[in-house]
Amino acid sequence: MGFLDMLYAASMPILKVLIVTALGSFLALESIDILGQSTSKQLNRLVFYVFSPALVGSILAKTITLKNIISMWFLPVNILLTFIIGSALGWALLIILRPPQHLKGLVIGSCAAGNIGNMMLIIIPAVCKEKASPFGDSDVCYKYGMAYASVSTAIGMILLWTYVYNIVQFFSVHSQDSGNNVVASVNETRTIEIIKESTPQLASSNVPINGKPKQVMLDSIKKHLGSFSRQFYLKAVFAPPTIGAVQYFITLDLDAAIPAMTLLVGGNLLKGLKGSGISLPLVCGIAVVRLVFSPIIGIFIVKGALHLGLVHADPLYLFVLYLQFALPPAMNIGTITQLFGAGEGECSVIMLWCYGLALLSLTLWSVFFMWLVA
Asked: What one-character DSSP code corresponds to residue 341?
């Protein structure tokens, strides 16, 4: 397969993503307001809770067998390695550039978590359907490529909402501690006063148990259960990956899933044009980590695994493993920053630049990866 053929096969999927992404940004403009803030939020929920998990579940149900699971055991290991390596590079970036405390979680998360979900589900089928694809029959390529992409999406989603979520939460909480100590002390005092005032009333209307009113004990139990669920964010961890297979049995047209994902990327990137106070070296550092250093390290890891016989020499499978290291930061990091109010504007700028540069880097890396596996 010639260089021009590989360049064509690699660039056309990225070009398609660029066109639909630009359309999403256009629809999100205030003057157009078709994909405005409220619409984008509702569509984002629909994609996250319905389209994406149902698409993943339907593909897994059709393609995954015990033999496939055994043969692709290195896939989740590879994804875990992308998070570990990205985190290490992110820590190095923190030491060099010393960003503000509330941005440290955003920096580590952006370096650690690539968009293994949406981008894999967009790029892999597009590559398979190209006539110049080096991966053989388009139908077979699509079948197994989407299986690899679906497993990647499920694993990446779990790691994102466990590891990255808690990293951002940790730094956002610690950045607020010093400024909120006085306010917290006042609030705590006032809360104690309110409890003292209300306890006699509760005690008069409830039967005491060991000197404590029933209602007070029930409220305490609810509070601790709520704190436990928030700490581990069980809903985010288990909901999309585990309900996808169930949703497969519901009558649902999944053809809109990938276009909807791509439109949302464009709408979300538009927020980055408004700018923020984040430094340019920090944005460039994250982009270099995700789009340059990570794929270079990934080449050595996959090559090493192939040399040791840990992975089978299937060109499509190897291409997916390489590609996992070269993806821009996960878009859901923006959702996580919104939850904690820590670096939401800065995250939009990071995403804008990383995805803009990724359109070029993904094309070049895809050509190189195709050359490696061909």
From this structure: T
Residues 6+ apart with CB under 8 A from 244: 52, 53, 54, 55, 56, 57, 58, 60, 154
Task: Return the axis-axis angle of helices 74-97 and 280-288, rounded to nearest 10°.
Answer: 150
What CA–CA distances, in Å, run from 360 to 10, 108, 200, 351, 365?
A: 11, 23, 68, 15, 9
Average the pLDDT over 335-341 and give the result: 75
Entry pTM: 0.72
Q: How many domains does the chain have?
A: 1
Q: What is the mean pLDDT of residues 47-51?
A: 71
Q: Which domain holds residue 308?
A: 3-176+184-373
Q: Which tokens sit at 19?
A: 């066109």
The contacts of residue 150 (CB under 8 Å, 6+ apart) are 55, 56, 59, 60, 63, 121
Neighbours of 338 (CB within 10 A): 13
Task: For residues 291 and 110, give the distance between their C-alpha atoms in angstroms, rounded to a whole number.
Answer: 11
Please give the radius of gyration of the chain, using alpha carbons only, rounded to the nearest integer.
23
H-helix or E-strand spanning residue 92: helix 74-97
Which residue blocks in 114-164 are alpha helix, DSSP H?
A: 118-129, 138-159
Cite the beta strand spans of 182-255 per DSSP E: none
pLDDT digits (tens, 9 = 90+) for 153-176: 888 888 888 898 888 888 887 666
Ranking 155-164, 270-279, 292-301, 344-353 by mean pLDDT, the lowest is 270-279
Q: Return the number of other C-beta atoms located less than 10 Å from residue 12's C-beta.
A: 18
CATH number of the domain that residue 203 is part of: 1.20.1530.20
What confidence tens digit (pLDDT) does each residue in 77-135 have?
A: 999 999 999 999 999 999 999 988 888 889 999 999 988 877 787 788 888 887 777 88
Q: DSSP letters along 31-57, please?
A: TT-SS-HHHHHHHHHHIIIIIHHHHHH
Residue in 345, 304, 341, 299 with CA at minimum distance from that of residue 321: 299
Which residue has better confidence, 58 or 327?
A: 327
256-270 burial, b if ≥16 CB within 10 A, otherwise e?
ebbebbbbbbbbbbb
